[in-house]
Amino acid sequence: PVTEELKAAGRRAAELDRAHVFHSWSAQDTLNPMTVVAAEGSAVWDGEGHRMLDFSSQMVNTNIGHQHPAVVKAIQEQAAKICTIAPAHVNDARSEAARLVAELAPEGMEHVFFTNAGADANEHAIRMARLHTGRHKVLSAYRSYHGGTNLAVNVTGDPRRWSNDLATEGAVHFLPSYPYRSYFHAETEEEEAERALEHLEHTILLEGPGTIAALILETVPGSAGVYVPPAGYLRGARELCRRHGIMFIADEVMVGFGRTGAWFALDHWDLDPDLITFAKGVNSGYVPLGGVIVSEAIRTTFGERVYPGGLTYSGHPLACAAAVATIGAMREEGMVENAKRMGEEVFAPRLAEIKEKHPSVGDVRGLGAFWAVELVKDRQTKEPLAPYGGSSEEMNRVVGALKAGGVLPFANFNRIHLAPPLNMTDEDLHTGLDVLDEALCVADEAIG
Ligand code: PLP
Asked: Transmembrane ranges (predicted)?
């Protein structure tokens, strides 16, 4: 229960926020941010004390939910022991976090370079690939997101790149495999994979394989639409990279650490990338942490040669202690297995019913605890309920109905994403899906 004191503190925080906080990705004068005064497990409480079910896991990072006691305790204990130490020193929390992360990665990937978050993990992975290959360009997909820093936002393939594009970073974009809105006029998954790979191969040949250092792909693209790749696509892309000496970077920032019902999403397709980037779920974002897992070949390149990169907080003890405790809690409580079950037993059947019932639903798709509902004006034409890169009155009303029903979603353009903590109870999951079911009537009405 939220006390009157907490509410008063929330009101004061909201005033100070408006007076002093400059927010991300926003026009500052148009904002009306929700105050959060408490968070626990799968729920947060707003400034008026309303409980909201967190179907966003914030930025799809609180995979273990809020305030997991084992992780809070590990951070407190580490803080009492050593809050911070330079990356050049050995530190037990960092060593153990690296061991655990490497243990979860595919065979032969034994070394981890820690960063502060996902964007800088991608920046470093690309830097490593460039130095390893002696090449410059980076291939990435349209409809992707790789982070907000200079290079990471330039390889990003969504509207967040448009105002930041320097066109000098060597980023080359290709069309992704996006079965629902196939760019290749494919009617089956097989056709989609085959034609998307053909397009990728043409892009590589036309750009000049000898100029391409890396291909970076989100294993399952996240904020760009949770569009699960068709069977064979990722392995085919990996093969093309191998054939042309291009480093394959799997961006597991959003999908790593259980989100899709496997420790890494690449486990679903038995992928063996040259580099894996991670952040978010590694410690559920309790303390900022990201990193790059490197193959033996790349580790060897920097055996004798200096790796020219680093960060003051690389492998920060508080963040690493949180990662050790998070991975431990996820294992003990079977959270990854639960995410898989949740996908198969709750999301897949319930979203199929929801699609059946609501004409505004064009597509539902996902894996584990990672789903998208794509809203359209017309199922035949697939015209989106909000334009690419924009919002609409109709989408705002759907999101409003979800929030009024006590559900915090992640909404983007014409899509509602559902990404709850991996340990949300089935009761809460069903409650949230009931609210979604109801909220979609607003969209049905809007499209008449
Ligand atoms: N890569 C992917 C796939 C992401 O989803 C994100 C963030 O949402 C990033 C990279 C960037 O991570 P960060 O915001 O921690 O820098």
From this structure: none
User: What does the pLDDT look like over 370-416, one tens digit per residue?
Assistant: 999 999 999 999 999 999 999 999 999 999 999 999 999 999 999 99
| Ligand 1 neighbours (beta carbon < 6 A) | 59, 117-119, 122, 145-147, 218, 222-223, 251, 253-254, 279, 290
Residue 385 tokens read as 């309920």
Q: What are phi and psi of 31, to 5 degrees?
A: -80, 150
**Quick one: pLDDT at residue 150?**
87
- State yes or no: pLDDT of 1 exceeds 80: no
Distance CA 443, CA 259 (A): 28
Pocket test for ligand 1, best of 57, 140, 145 (most atoms within 8 A of CB): 145
Write the DSSP assignment of 44-60 as a string of letters.
EEETT--EEEETTHHHH
Angle of CA points 5, 7, 11, to nearest 5°: 115
Contact indicator for 177, 162 with CB cutoff of 8 Å: no
Q: Which domains are seen in the chain, by residue range?
A: 4-67+334-447 (3.90.1150.10), 70-332 (3.40.640.10)
Strands 137-141 and 212-218: parallel
Mutate which of 124, 155, 218, 254 for ligand 1 pocket (most atoms within 8 A of beta carbon): 254
Of all residues in the chain, the percent with pLDDT exceeding 90 is 95
Dihedral through CA 69, CA 71, CA 75, CA 81, nearest 10? 90
Residue 152 Cα to ligand 1 middle (Å): 9
pLDDT of amino acid 159: 87
